[in-house]
Specification:
Number of helices: 45
Low-confidence stretches: none
GO molecular function, one term: double-stranded DNA binding
InterPro entries: ADDB_N, DNA_helicase_suAddB, DNA_helicase_suRexB, P-loop_NTPase, PDDEXK-like_dom_sf, PDDEXK_AddAB-type, Restrct_endonuc-II-like
Largest sheet: 8 strands, mixed
Enzyme class: hydrolase
Number of strands: 32
GO biological process, one term: double-strand break repair via homologous recombination
Structural class: alpha/beta
Pfam families: ADDB_N (PF21445), PDDEXK_1 (PF12705)
Length: about 1200
């Protein structure tokens, strides 16, 4: 019985010393058993390295095998010794099962708990408590120990008192539930230590390698080995002088030194002979890396630092800065490719380390795949993001939130629940995706949730599109069929399952119902199909995941039935336990090949057989790492707790921080030839990062310059190996450098020209290279449409509304996208401004028609009659089955409130029309008056214009309201356009084509006067806007009002018409009866006023002479013909309008991502809409007529 300690720096070959001893002992005692114990993380590689070493010592040339030597981790050692014992046959429990037992323990003892009783349902608490119990077991701390500690710290902290009290109760209940029924991983080593007490280890030799510290369980096991085995050798990374140094918890090797004295103390206590330390002296790293090691040891231990000696190789230690993580990893991948291709390296010679490898997950896979570099990421991959886990979570969320849109889409988009046809075949996946996308679009548009998914009747699909005469509704039976296929699948599949599981009395019933549901719906079949597809694609890592997730669920259900199966079933508890189980589950990963780059974290034990180590992400926030634990027993709690020497918990955060230099030291020493530090200046969300202070110290001492390889190559630079690699990856850089060459007007360096020739001569990359490089000469300028395309889009006649042609004048390319290609935004269930406007329009239409149908006069109605009419109108609109677009107003309490506000606005406008009617003889005679054909309806004659090449444009539309009045036998006709926002007529915009609506409508009325009035000599009165609103008066305004009449006048002033009126004295004198009586004043209804002095029009009156109006109408016709002619000529210029107030046509455009308009590009220019004074516009019109 001996204890032999092997010490030495990390750079020295500890394994060589251990295996030399092992071999020599094996030669002397060939029948003995030899156990080489390493951390589980490196067990496979250690086994290979051990056999290779022994083969070399033996002199074996070909194959070598050894039955007396075993390479194990501690858990695997337990299996080796105990696999046939009754104890080892007890079922092993998973992390999910542990959570279930912990949950059961809390529920059963809820009345006795102080702190944990209210925490059991908090997300994550059960897992946190289970982890704490596992840590206690690893530390060999029993419930009796907790009771003793509780007695020692009573009164120091009420929180700690409560924790220890509750922990003791739960711990006792947990142990009782586990005893003789289950074992967990943390129990195995304690059981092994007990087993070895009675085992014959007299011919057993143990060699421990790769550990710097041991848990209390492992120490107990080593103690047992010391007392029973023939020999025990332990290797520690520990500089020999450090053993003799004073200072508890200080210095680079403080953890190793603590372990060293711990082992020596145990040996002496067991009366085991402690052999003289052996020092590993053979260095396995190059002299330059030895210099870095010596500096790091001296500087970390506050020792005298030797002067730096120039490195033998400039590449031994490098520091590389990059702009971002993508560029950082791309440079590393290119360097690995170069070394493998030109220097004889193998991929297995490289190790990539990062303290936070997850930060690089999004860039590592695509870059290494593009560079065709085999790699293995040994970080555990959690199951939580797998679609099957998402399905389980979403399934119960659908029930909890009653068929909420978000939950249903989460469930269906896992693509594991697929409808079947009548022959029990799954729906083709492409067909399913299209049907689901259509269903989602419809749900977003209509807001269908909850009971809508379960209704008996199929959904009626209708498409609402803004047409020339308002919103047009089109039904599509084919789309309706696809949408309802998804709806019926949900209705027929989910409610029966939810009904059954809600009726479950016990946990066992519920588990069986869930399993049967997954079987019956073909979820397992889909997972198997996924596995087979991945196998066919050669992706063996992904192929194993579907089966692992299914097995994980089955194991959890088995444990749930075993542990909680007889208890009363609780659905929320069931889901919480499943989620906690999946949160703690990870995929088992097996390297697919031996020759591959290893990606790992620097805090983990690594094999020391690599030649090159890249330490990525060497920034100040992770090197050193400032870990903040979220353990149940906090650092403050642990500092107050005093446990026996052979029982202890894991390190506090402060101790872990002190160990950071040592952990990084091990990483620095992991390679034999080169150490490369890399970091990017920008981290998550572009937050700036600095170089690690550790790296900065090394750089400063050895005067290492920081390399900064530009993400974009320099076209003049001929040294380009940083950017070379696999052809696909190199092509990316060729595109970048070619673009830089064009921008800088510099020729490509010969090296890049060679790359270009190589890729263009490659059969696989020739077309891609030409396509990508061709894109660099691209200008963001749309091409004019070819005549055949124009004919296909528009035919020989353009049927259009004037608003469409206005769009052409504000941006030709937007017109092409919207009305040529007919692109549309995805509709969502919301009350848009357009929908609000349509609601108001419908109400005004109903009101006027109701008044005329009943032969009433608005001016004669009282408020009660008006309100009754409004109530009837709103009821008709909201309950009309054809008015699907207003269904949103009844969809929720919030929408009901908004609906009531809209109704109040209608009431206000009805009152406004009533008051206005009392002051003017002008009366609304027609509403929603069409001209041209809109859909299946034919209105008045359209505005039709002949164009060159036998083409034609026909303008159609719908006029909101036509008003008429007669004065001395002379008929006047005006139009009113309702607006849900404030509008006024802008003569400058009308002249430039961006607001032609009012003039076009007037033109249509003028051409159809005989149809409208029966009087072809009727006169045009004007074109007006009415803002449909419920105006409010400011408090200051109210204070100025002397009477109710003043209040009414003030409201009417806010609701007055805006636009233009014909400057006809007969019309103006009679239009506002109040002004007609006084002969002067400002109208509260119409946009004019008369001076008291001479009765002339006030300066701000919006009046236009008949002759000027005629010129404006003629100019509008020219604009229509001009726009149509240019459309037929294929014009699609990207020329968004920009007004003098900086408003642009792009401001609310849904097509910005398509147009990619950039005013900084020389080819992208705004179409400036200049502000013209009214006098200038009229002068221009008169000049045109000359």
């Amino acid at each position: 019985m001996t204890l032999q300690l092997i010490i030495g720096k990390a750079s020295c070959d500890h394994r060589q010393v251990l295996l030399k001893d092992l071999y020599e002992t094996l030669e002397k005692q060939p029948s003995d058993q030899f156990y080489y114990i390493v951390p589980n993380h490196i067990k496979f590689e250690s086994e290979v390295a051990t056999l290779e070493n022994l083969a070399r010592q033996t002199g074996a040339v070909d194959q070598y095998a050894q039955s007396q030597v075993q390479v194990f981790s501690f858990p695997r050692l337990a299996w080796y010794f105990m696999k046939n014992t009754p104890y080892y046959q007890i079922p092993r429990i998973s992390s999910a099962g542990l959570n279930m037992i912990v949950y059961q323990s809390i529920v059963d003892h809820a009345d006795d708990l102080v702190l944990f009783k209210g925490e059991a349902t908090r997300p994550g608490f059960i897992s946190k408590l289970a982890n704490q119990l596992s840590e206690l077991k690893i530390g060999r701390v029993t419930d009796e120990d907790l009771q003793q500690v509780a007695g020692q710290v009573t009164g120091q902290s009420a929180d700690l008192d409560a924790k220890l009290h509750d922990l003791t109760i739960v711990y006792q209940a947990f142990d009782a539930a586990m005893r003789d029924k289950y074992i967990e991983n943390t129990d195995i080593l304690n059981a092994l230590a007990d087993f070895l007490k009675s085992a014959d280890l007299s011919q057993a030799h143990f060699y421990i390698d790769g550990f710097s510290q041991f848990s209390a369980q492992e120490i107990k096991l080593l103690q047992q080995m010391m007392g029973s085995a023939a020999s025990l050798e332990v290797s520690l990374v520990l500089d020999q002088p450090a053993i003799r140094e004073d200072g508890h918890g200080q210095g680079l090797f403080f953890q190793s030194k603590k372990t060293y004295h711990q082992l020596v103390g145990l040996a002496r206590a067991e009366q085991v002979q402690v052999m003289t330390d052996k020092v590993a002296k053979i260095s396995r790293i190059c002299p330059d890396l030895q210099q870095v090691e010596n500096y790091w040891i001296a500087s970390s231990n506050s020792q005298k630092i030797a002067p730096a000696v120039p490195f033998e190789s400039s590449s031994s230690i490098e520091i590389v800065q990059a702009n971002n993580r993508y560029s950082e990893v791309a440079q590393i991948a290119a360097e690995i490719r170069r070394l493998v291709a030109t220097k004889g390296y193998r991929y297995s010679d490289f190790l990539i380390l990062s303290r936070k490898l997850d930060r690089y997950q999004n860039v590592l896979a695509p870059i290494f795949s593009a560079q065709e570099i085999p790699y293995f990421n040994d970080n555990q991959l959690a199951m939580t993001n797998h679609p099957f886990v998402e399905l389980i979570t979403a399934l119960f969320e659908v029930n909890r939130h009653y068929y909420r849109y978000k939950d249903l889409m989460r469930l269906l988009k896992t693509e594991l629940l697929i409808p079947k046809d009548q022959e029990d075949h799954f729906m083709p996946i492409d067909e399913f995706r299209r049907s689901l996308a259509l269903a989602e679009n419809w749900v977003l548009k209509t807001g269908y949730e909850g009971r809508r998914w379960l209704q008996e009747d199929d959904w009626q699909y209708a498409k609402f599109e803004p047409g020339d005469g308002g919103v047009e509704t089109t039904k599509n039976e084919e789309i309706a069929t696809q949408i309802n296929q998804i709806r019926r699948f949900v209705k027929e599949t989910l409610p029966p399952f939810f009904k059954k599981i809600k009726a479950a009395q016990t946990g066992q019933e519920a588990a069986k119902i869930l399993y049967q549901f997954l079987e019956d719906t073909g979820v397992e079949t889909q997972l198997i199909s996924w596995r087979d597809t991945f196998i066919d694609q050669g992706d063996l890592v992904s192929a194993d995941q579907p089966e692992q997730t299914w097995d994980a669920l089955c194991d959890m259900l088995d444990e749930y039935v075993e542990i909680l199966g007889d208890r009363e079933f609780d659905l929320d508890e069931f889901l919480a336990l499943l989620q906690a189980g999946f949160e703690g589950a990870a995929f088992a990963q097996i390297p697919s090949t031996l020759d591959q780059v290893i990606l790992s974290e620097s805090g983990m034990v690594q094999m020391n057989n690599r030649k090159v180590t890249f330490m990525i992400g060497s920034t100040d926030d992770v090197m050193p790492d400032t870990t903040v634990s979220n353990r149940l027993l906090s650092d403050q709690d642990r500092e107050k707790m005093t446990l026996p020497d052979d029982k202890y918990l894991s390190d506090t955060n402060s101790t872990s921080l002190k160990n950071e230099p040592f952990l990084n030291y091990l990483a620095f020493s992991s390679a034999s030839e080169r150490l490369v530090f890399t970091y990017s200046l920008n981290g998550d969300e572009d937050e700036a990062r600095q170089m690690s202070p550790y790296v900065s110290r090394i750089a400063k001492h050895f005067n290492i310059s920081i390399q900064d390889h530009a993400a974009v190559p320099d076209p003049k630079q001929n040294e380009i190996w940083h950017y070379l690699g696999a052809k696909r990856a190199t092509l990316r850089h060729l595109v970048q450098v070619s673009d830089a060459s064009r921008t800088q007007e510099e020729p490509l360096a010969p090296a890049w020209q060679y790359v270009y020739q190589t890729l263009t001569n490659d059969d696989h990359y020739r077309d891609m290279t030409a396509q990508l490089l061709g894109g660099m000469t691209y200008h963001n300028v749309p091409k004019s449409l070819a005549p055949d395309i124009v004919s296909a889009l528009y035919g020989q006649t353009i049927f259009t509304s004037i608003s469409k042609l206005e769009e052409f004048y504000t941006n030709e390319y937007a017109y092409f996208l919207k009305y040529g290609l007919k692109l549309q935004e995805r509709s969502v269930f919301e009350l848009s401004p357009a929908s609000t406007g349509e609601f108001f329009h419908a109400a005004m239409d109903y009101l006027i028609k109701m008044v005329r149908k009943q032969k009433l006069d608005l001016a004669a109605l009282d408020s009660q009659q008006l309100n009754e009419m409004v109530d009837e109108i709103v009821d008709q609109i909201l309950n009309d089955p054809e008015n699907l677009q207003f269904a949103i107003l009844k969809s929720s309490n919030r929408m009901s409130y908004i609906s009531s506000q809209l109704v109040e606005t209608i009431r206000r406008m009805a009152a406004t029309l009533h008051e206005q009617s009392k002051r003017t003889p002008m009366r609304a005679t027609q509403t929603e008056v069409m001209f041209g054909r809109i859909g299946a309806e034919q209105g008045m004659k359209s505005l039709s214009f002949e164009l060159p090449n036998n083409r034609k444009v026909e303008v159609r539309g719908k006029i909101d309201r036509i008003d008429q009045m007669a004065i001395d036998g002379k008929n006047y006709v005006g139009i009113v356009d309702y607006k849900s926002s404030d509008h006024d007529f802008n003569l400058s915009d009308a002249y430039q084509g961006t607001t032609m609506q009012m003039m076009t409508y007037l033109d249509a009325v003028k051409r159809n006067l005989d149809t409208i009035t029966g009087d072809k000599d009727a006169q045009i009165a004007g074109a007006l806007y009415l803002h449909l609103s419920n105006p409010k008066l400011a408090f200051k305004e109210i204070l100025k009002l002397a009477s109710d009449d003043d209040f009414l006048e003030a409201l009417l002033s806010k609701e007055k018409y805006k636009g233009i009126l014909v400057d006809d004295s007969v019309l103006i004198d009679k239009l506002d009866s109040k002004i007609g009586v006084d002969g002067y004043g400002k109208s509260t209804i119409y946009p004019f006023g008369k001076k008291k002095t001479d009765g002339a029009a006030m300066a701000n009156s919006r009046l236009i002479r008949v002759s000027d109006l005629t010129l404006l109408l003629r100019h509008t016709e020219k604009l229509i013909k001009n726009a149509a002619t240019r459309i037929f000529e294929g014009e699609t210029d990207l020329n968004p309008a920009k007004w003098t107030n900086q408003r642009t046509a792009l401001q609310y455009s849904p097509f910005k991502s398509i147009m990619q308009f950039d005013p900084l590009l020389t080819e992208n220019k705004y179409h400036e809409i200049t502000k013209m004074a009214d006098e200038d516009v009229l002068a221009a019109l008169r000049k045109e007529s000359d």
